[in-house]
Design goal:
single chain; about 375 residues; mainly alpha; Ribonucleotide Reductase, subunit A; 18 helices
Length: about 375
């Protein structure tokens, strides 16, 4: 079947009235013209050229007619880098329950990837208007196309797996904050550094863990795009942050911290982890027993995370190194992050994971390690 025909069969008929499943947020920004069409930030112009060269077609390049490999999917299930499949809790579940938990948990996580990609689509379109440099506008235009493709592929995969779950409250608030920000630099920090950094780390980790063929290939393609998106934030903000005042730098640091806090701080009761646990309860899992069983395998989990490189998680393992690299990780904001980690994972584990790793020199090469053939 031709790619265009497959896309048509997957689409629903257009509604006769305005779509009902919509919500909105008031967003205002200053749209900036730039009458200088010569390149001003060569790294961004190069990134734009790379983006044009590396476009892919979701319906042509992925095999949507293949069935999901249930055994591979359940056998290599992980939750935000935590190798749940290696625990006694997981092994004690029956085969049907393991499939149900992995399928629905993955559908929830992928649904939030999907919702996050829609938010990124909207923010990238805002950046075309809001950034002051023509090189930045050019690249943001290519990212807008990338994000539309990501929305397309995640929605298609979730339809094969389960159903689209509602957006997690913390993620919704993060997207609202970024869309409403009146400073393009806050949009870039909130989306290109925090949201895209979390996404890149999580996509790559899920890709490395799963043995489900379609998901592995899909996440490889998406991660390559995300590497450029994060690189855009790093290159652009690295050029701009040294030119701003101390007060403005502190404001950007606080915006970055709040963006990360909304996704991982369980004290608010609406983190991604808390929402997944509620989902497990709805399936019939006794969470008190499950957590007690998982804690018994804590050493095995830590060793598994160290083996796969997911020990630090996306904030410690990627977002914080990015903030440090662009000059937005002062001792002041580091104290905020450290306090949050101590409250969420305990003094001992927070101390053991406190060292900041180096950011990969080449993000696209880092994503492609072992997957150059895909």
């Amino acid at each position: 079947m031709h790619a265009r025909d497959r896309l048509t069969t997957m689409a629903s008929p257009l509604p006769e009235q305005h779509p009902q499943q919509t919500s909105g947020v008031k967003a205002s920004l200053e749209a900036i013209y730039n009458w200088n069409y010569a390149s001003e930030i060569d790294q961004l112009r190069t990134l734009y050229a790379n983006a044009l060269d590396r476009q892919w077609n979701a319906m042509r390049d992925l095999d949507w007619e293949s069935e999901i490999d249930r055994a591979a999917f359940s056998r290599t299930f992980s939750l935000a880098g935590v190798p749940i499949q290696e625990t006694g809790f997981w092994q004690d579940l029956g085969e049907d329950m393991r499939w149900e938990v992995s399928r629905r948990s993955a559908a929830f996580m992928l649904s939030n990837f999907l919702h996050g990609e829609q938010g990124a689509l909207m923010v990238a379109a805002q950046l075309v208007n809001a950034v002051p440099h023509m090189d930045g506008k050019f690249y943001a235009a290519t990212q807008t196309l990338d994000e539309a493709r990501h929305v397309e592929v995640f929605a298609a995969y979730i339809r094969k797996l389960d159903e689209v779950y509602p957006i997690a409250p913390g993620l919704k608030q993060l997207l609202d904050n970024v869309l409403q920000a009146d400073d393009w630099k806050k949009k870039a920090v909130g989306m290109q550094v925090v949201a895209e950094g979390l996404a890149l780390y999580s996509f790559r980790d899920m890709r490395n863990q799963t043995e489900e063929p379609l998901l592995k290939k899909l996440l490889t393609y998406v991660s390559r795009d995300e590497a450029r998106h994060t690189g855009y934030g790093i290159k652009y903000l690295s050029a701009v942050v040294p030119t701003i005042s101390d007060a403005e730098r502190a404001e950007l640091e606080d915006f970055a911290f709040e963006s990360a806090r909304l996704l991982i701080d369980s004290r608010a009761g609406n983190s991604i982890r808390e929402t997944v646990f509620k989902l497990w309860q709805s399936i019939g899992i006794d969470m008190q027993q499950a957590l007690a069983s998982i804690l018994k395998d804590r050493d095995r989990i830590v060793k598994g995370m160290e083996r796969t490189g997911g020990r630090l998680g996306p904030v410690r393992g990627f977002v914080i190194p990015t903030l440090s690299a662009i000059g937005l990780y002062s001792e002041r904001v580091r104290g905020h992050f450290d306090e949050m980690f101590r409250a969420n994972i305990g003094e001992d584990l927070a101390r053991r994971t406190s060292q900041i790793p180096a950011l990969p020199d080449d993000l696209e090469a880092w994503v492609d390690e072992g997957y150059e053939h895909v």
